[in-house]
C-alpha cells in the first residue's frame, strides 16, 4: 500500500500497556494512519463497531479475554480486516493459533511501526524452512515453546497452566517474564 493509501487507513491498536499503546498509535498517526486505541477486549470491540477500522494491531496477552479471542471476534465482525498480532510472549503455538483464527501476521515485541505496517500487506503465508535434523534447538528454547503451548491451551490462565505443568505459579510467571531465550552471538568489542 502506498503512503497515500496509508493516510486513509484506520488502525485499531489494542494493548493493555497504555504507554506502549499510546506511543504506537502516535507513531502510526505520524505515518498517516488514523489510530484508535483500546486496552481490553470489550473496549476494542466497542471501538471496532463504532469506527469500522480496516486494520488492527492486537496484543496477545491481556487481562480478561485475550488477544486470540479478540482476533476471532474482529474477524467475525469484519472478515476483510487485516489483523497483526503483536506480543512480547511469542511462540510458534500461539502464532499458528493466531493465523488460524484470521490474523494476517504475527510479530514479537519490540516491533517498529514500519514493520507493523509492512505486516499488514502480507497476503501469502510465510513458508518457514524446517530446521535441519542436525541443528537441534537449545533446551531453553524448547522449554519456552512448551510453556507457550500449555499457556495457549489454558487460554492465557497462568494458574491453570502452572497446575498442568506441575510447577508453582510464581515460577511460571518468572519464566514468562524473562521472555523468549536469545541465542544470538555476543557482539565483538
TrEMBL record:
Q: Name one Pfam family in it.
A: Response_reg
List, alphabetically, the InterPro entries matched: Bact_response_regulator, CheY-like_superfamily, Homeodomain-like_sf, HTH_Fis, Sig_transdc_resp-reg_receiver
Any GO BP annotation:
phosphorelay signal transduction system
Q: Please give one Gene Ontology molecular function term for this protein.
A: sequence-specific DNA binding
Query: List-wise, which residues carry 4-aspartylphosphate?
Result: 59
Response regulatory domain mapped to chain residues: 10-124
Provide the protein name.
Answer: Response regulator
Q: Which UniProt keywords apply?
A: Phosphoprotein, Two-component regulatory system
- Organism phylogeny: Bacteria, Pseudomonadati, Myxococcota, Polyangia, Nannocystales
Highest taxon of source? Bacteria
